[in-house]
Amino acid sequence: MFQERFRMEGGKFFNADTMKATVNGEVGLKVFKQMLAENKFMPPGVEQWNFVDNLAAFLQGTTAMTSSWPPYGRWAAGYGSGEEALKWVPKSQVAGKVGYALTPLGRPELGVGFDLSVSATSKNKEAPISSSSG
Asked: What are the pLDDT digits (tens) for 100-129?
């Protein structure tokens, strides 16, 4: 996945002085080219796969390795297979056969994000969002 590999190659997401994005610089282009070149070792049509296509191939044992967020470990082990909400997850054929390792230098992909919500019972739902804590 791009973020991890970009950082491993020494990439910085922004120029510290200008805060301009640098993912399209030399390091970013190198990583994207490497990722594209690796497709020749993957199943035909992998460029068109979505999250569930990749998950299904891994859980059926037709791919040897994968990288994904969210991680597939619990689904590979069969966790949640009886849950109604997880019926979309293909049945694991690899339970008990999956191993794990840290990425080089122990710098894994980080699943980061940002959530913002307003309570349904708020008396001031239209108030502007402020980054100050006052």
From this structure: 877 666 666 666 555 667 778 888 877 766
